[in-house]
Task: structure prediction
Amino acid sequence: MAEHHSLQESPQSGPPTARSPPAPDGLPVLDHTIGFLRDGIDFGNRMANHGDVVAFDAMGIPFVAVYDPALVQQVLVDRSDEFRKGDYETAFGDLIAPDGLAFTEGEQWRRDRQLLQPAFTPRHIQSFADTMVARTADAAESWTAEGIVDLRQAASDLTLDILVGTLFDLDLDAERGQVVQAALDALDDRISGLSMVAPGWLPTPAKRRFERRMTDLDEMVDALIRERRRSGIEAEAGADLLDTLLAAEYPDGSTMDAEQVRDQLVTFLGAGHETTAVALTYTLWLLAGDSAVRDRLDAELEAVCGDADPSFADLPDLEYAEAVVKEALRLYPPVYAIYRQPIEDTILGGYELSADQTLVLGTYQIHRDSRWWDDPDAFRPARWLGDEDDSQDRPEYAYFPFGGGPRHCIGMRFARMELTLALATLARNLEFKRITENLSPSAEVTLDPGEVRIRVTSRE
Ligand code: HEM
Result:
C-alpha cells in the first residue's frame, strides 16, 4: 500500500482536540457512490492513502473509514457499548434475516448470543473434528476424479456439507445444497451495483431473482425444522445448534418463535459457510503457487500425521498448517470490512463523529499496511512462527479477521479448526497446480475471489 498522506486540517475546524474527520485531501465530503460500488477494495485502498480516518459519502450514507488499529480496538472492544452495528448493517440484515444474531442489537442480541453460545463451546467444537476430516477426505476423492476443479465452487460445497453435517447434524442432498447456494449468489447480485442504489419500490431483475431464491430457501428451512421436530429434539449432551434453537428458552420462560428460528438458521447458513468457503479457496490457491510453503507443510504433515488423516489430537502440532491459514486470512480476509455506528455523537481519535455516520473499519487495508507488516503483500506463513515471528511491535488490531470484542465471530473456533483440518487433509492427499494465475477479489457479501481453477492430482 502506498504511504499515508498527512491529513489536511480545514481552517474552519473546531478546537484542536476534536474536529470533523477530513475528506480525501481536505476536500468537502464528496459523493463516492460509483467508486464504492464499482470496486470496494480498490476504493478502500485509495481512501487509506488519505489517512487513518477519512470521511466520504456513498449511496446517501455518510461514511467514515478507519484504518488505525488502535481506533479499531476502541470501537470493537474498549468502547464497544458506545457503538451499535448501525443502519447500514441492519438494512443488509433486513434483506435476509432481521432477527439473526449477526444483525440484532441491544438486549435482543445479548439474550440470543447467550442462548446460542453453548453450541460453540470448545467441547462441542472438538466433537466435530472427525466429521470435518471425513467430509474433506470424501471431497478430496471427488476432486481427484474431476482433475480440473472450480475451487470456489468445490470449497463452497465442502464447507456447506461440513456446516450442516456438524452444527445441524444433517445431510443436505445436492438439491437442498443448491437452494442455499442460489440464495447466497442472488444476495451477492442484490447488494451490488445498481440494485443497491435503486429505490426500494423499483423491481430490478436482481431484486426479483433474490426474492424468488429467498422464498425457496424459506421453504427448505421450514422443511428442515419440521423434520427435526418430527425426529425429536435432543436436550443437553447431544444437542446441536438446531436443537439449541428449537429448545431454547429465554430467562422469562419464552421461546424463539418460528421467524426467529428461521432467521438464526439462515444467518448461520450464510455466515458459517461462505466465509470459510472463500477462506479455503484463497488458502489452497496461495499454497498451489508457493512450492517452499508446500514443502514445509508436507514435512509437518508427515511428521505429525504419518500416513493417517489428521485428527483433533494433532491440532496443537499442526503449527505450520495453522500459520498458513492465518496468513491467508490476513491477505484475503473474507469479512473485508466491519461496520459500526456511534449510538450518540462522540469523539474518536480526536475526530468528532455524529450519530448518523457509519464507520467502516478497513480490515483488508489494515491487514496489508506496511506500518504493521513487513513485505505486506507477500504470502509468508512463517511470519507467525518461532524465530521469524515479527509480531512484537504490532498493535493487536492490525489483524482482526474475526472482528473483536463482544460481537466477535461466534464461529471463530469452529472456522479455524475446520480450515486447519481441511487444509491438512487435502494437502496430505492431493497436489495442486494453479490454472488461474491471478486473482482480482471483489467486495461482495464476502471478499469474493471470482472463478479459481486448479488442477488436482492424487498423491498416492
Ligand atoms: C473464516 C471464516 C469466518 C470469518 C472470517 C468470520 C468473520 C466474522 C467477523 C469479522 C464477524 C464480526 C462482524 C462484526 O463485528 O460486525 C463475524 C460474526 C459472526 N460470525 Fe463469523 N466468520 C467466519 C466463520 C463463521 C462460522 C463458521 C460461523 C458459524 C458457524 C460464523 C457465524 C458468525 C455469526 C453468527 C456472527 C455474528 C456474531 C454476533 O454478532 O454476535 N462465522 N464473523
Residues 101-102, 113, 167, 267-268, 271-272, 275-276, 279, 334-335, 338, 401-403, 407, 409-411, 414-415 surround protoporphyrin IX containing FE (CB under 6 Å). The CA atoms of residues 122 and 306 lie 26 Å apart. The chain has a mean pLDDT of 88.
